[in-house]
Amino acid sequence: MASDIVIAQTSVDNEHAAKELARGAVEARLAACAHVDAPSTAVYRWKGTVETATEWRVSCKTTRDRLPALSAWVAQQHAYDVPEWIVLAVDGGSDAYMAWVAEETR
Length: 106
What we know:
alpha+beta
């Protein structure tokens, strides 16, 4: 059974920006929490060239109703021309955690 909780992900090119994005989303109650993953290597095509870069993923736990506001806020804060923005449905989880996410994003 699907829930109203989603995980929205983006990536940035430095650890400081990742932490600022995560903290800002939580402070604004756009996300209940956000994880900043260890740096990883991204390989992608950009403007006809294959590029390699180090990036930090930011995963925000939020509700479907807060998602449009979070999406707009991240787009405004993000330095990339075309930032990664992927939303993953949460199909289940502990009732207590789901309730906490909903409460912290009100």
